[in-house]
Structure formats: structure tokens, C-alpha cells
Design goal:
Strands 3-4-5-2-1-6 form a six-stranded mixed beta sheet. Strand 4 and strand 5 form a beta hairpin. The radius of gyration is 13 Å and the shape is globular. The longest helix is centred in the middle third of the chain and has 17 residues. The chain is of the alpha+beta class and about 120 residues long. Helix 1 crosses helix 2. The protein has five helices and six strands; from the N terminus they run αββαβββααβα. The chain has a single domain, classed as Beta Polymerase, domain 2, CATH 3.30.460.10.
Length: about 120
């Protein structure tokens, strides 16, 4: 299986939103093969708790304006790892230490990476 066009469109919006708030180390993974509930994971790093929250808030605002619905939101109060579930797209915004500790990229190593840099360049 491959990620749906809807998930890829949401990925582009989410990546640009995260970038606009200083998100770093973008990784997008096509998880449509092993997971029945999502097509794409976007993993982003924030530099502080405040930055993690700002990135997550901007991603959520942009996707809501585009018509997406937030199915689940976790970790917002702590600002260390915020998960935003939009159905086809799940966005993980990590503080640097949590991202290293949990290593989602290692857990999903078998899933193909999706290029994020062209999405960010297309938004300029």
C-alpha cells in the first residue's frame, strides 16, 4: 500500500506549518503498509517546551482550516511530546531529548521515508 493523496496533502500542510514555527529534523514515514489506521507519520523536533506547543498548535490550526478533523491530541500540557491524530496523518512533535529517547524512526525503520524538503521549498 501507499499513502493516500489526502494524507500527502495533509503532510505538506503540516510540514509547512511546523516549519513556520521553527520545527527541525523533519522525517515523514509512509506507514500505510503496517498500520490500518494511518498512512503517514510526520516527526518534528522543537527546541523547547514552548516551541513544541507552538509547532503543534500551528499544525492543528492549519489543518483545521483546511477541513481536517483532529481525532486525538495528547501531551499538549507537558510540551515534551505532542501527538496529533488527523486520521490518515499522525503528527509527532517532540522535544529533542524525547525524540532521541523514543526513537520512532528506529521503530518504523522498515517504512519508506517520504521527502519533506521539497514540500517545504514548495511553500516558499
Amino acid at each position: 500500500m501507499t499513502a493516500s493523496d489526502q494524507a500527502l496533502d495533509a503532510l505538506a500542510l503540516a510540514a509547512r506549518a511546523a516549519d513556520s514555527k521553527g520545527g527541525e529534523d523533519f522525517v515523514a514515514l509512509d506507514v500505510s503498509g503496517p498500520l490500518p489506521f494511518a498512512d503517514v507519520f510526520l516527526i518534528v523536533t522543537g527546541t523547547s517546551e514552548r516551541n513544541v506547543v507552538a509547532i503543534a498548535d500551528e499544525v492543528e490550526d492549519v489543518l483545521l482550516r483546511a477541513g481536517a478533523k483532529t481525532h486525538r491530541r495528547e501531551g499538549h500540557d507537558a510540551g515534551r511530546w505532542i501527538l496529533l491524530d488527523f486520521g490518515d496523518l499522525v503528527v509527532h512533535v517532540f522535544h529533542r531529548e524525547e525524540r532521541l529517547y523514543y526513537g520512532l524512526e528506529r521503530l518504523w525503520l522498515d517504512c519508506p521515508a517520504l521527502p519533506v524538503a521539497p514540500l517545504l521549498a514548495a511553500g516558499n
